[in-house]
Write a structure and sequence with these properties.
Helices cover about 70% and strands about 0% of the residues. The chain has about 250 residues and is mainly alpha-helical. It has a domain of about 60 residues: Tetratricopeptide repeat domain (Serine Threonine Protein Phosphatase 5, Tetratricopeptide repeat, Alpha Horseshoe).
């Protein structure tokens, strides 16, 4: 065969050959943003399984991407897969160690898993990033109470100046003296049926329930955290409340 003619035939064959898409080429894979939307929408609908599946896909398709790893940790925590969330938050910290102080979510996961000493350390570190958060002080209080007892927890309540959300000031005082009447009064000052009242009731129930858990009153803790878990709100902390309520129920 003529060499030039053979070359033309081979080139023509290559140009006209169909493109083969191999299975390991993720041309139709959802983006991180798409999977985030999928997971959050599922949580809004109360569908934890689908939210967890979105996290699974994030790790399958973007296993070394720090954004995907952190988002997977969030979705796992909010859908009740606590151990899985801890693993991903720890992977994220290995990749981005400078962000550890920001990860209050990691502290909550540690606490719900019963790793109270690790949780205590994380919430103390979080004050570097957010020194004004009473919620951080409350989770820290629970960890200290579980490890060292309620008296030590009351003596080591973290400062949290400037948290103006109702009833955060009263919740911090509750941690120190155990008087929840101020929390109830602050909530009841808000207009019944208003969004602000609903939010305040949620926080009041969640953290008075947490205080009951800290002092060793599981029946009261289940009742109050369970009330918080029934909120119609759809956000990170409402999902955490539902996971917390499940954990309390599981320890009956």
């Amino acid at each position: 065969m003529n060499v030039r003619l053979a070359a033309v035939i081979i080139l023509s064959t290559l140009v006209s050959a169909p493109v083969v898409c191999h299975a390991d080429e993720p041309s139709d894979v959802l983006s991180i943003s798409d999977l985030r939307t999928m997971g959050l929408r599922a949580l809004e609908q109360g569908n934890r399984q689908t939210a967890g599946e979105a996290a699974d896909k994030l790790l399958l398709n973007f296993e070394d991407d720090s954004r995907a790893i952190r988002l997977a940790g969030d979705l796992y925590l909010r859908s009740g897969r606590i151990r899985s969330s801890i693993k991903q938050f720890e992977r994220y910290i290995e990749l981005v160690p400078g962000d550890k102080a920001e990860l209050w979510q990691y502290g909550i996961a540690l606490t719900l898993a019963g790793q109270f000493e690790d949780g205590r350390k994380l919430f103390e570190l979080h004050r570097v990033a957010n020194p004004n958060d009473v919620e951080n002080a409350a989770w820290h209080f629970l960890c200290v109470a579980k490890v060292s007892g309620i008296n030590e927890a009351k003596k080591t309540v973290l400062p949290a100046p400037g948290d103006t959300r109702v009833p955060m000031t009263e919740i911090r005082r509750l941690l120190m003296d155990g008087d929840e009447r101020r929390v109830t009064a602050a909530v009841e000052e808000l207009t019944a049926g208003s969004t602000s009242r609903e939010v305040a009731e949620f926080f009041g129930n969640l953290y008075t329930g947490m205080y009951a858990d800290a002092v060793g009153n599981p029946t009261k803790a289940r009742r109050l955290v369970g009330a918080a878990a029934k909120t119609a709100q759809a956000n990170y902390m409402s999902d955490v409340a539902r996971v917390y309520a499940d954990e309390l129920e599981a320890t009956k």
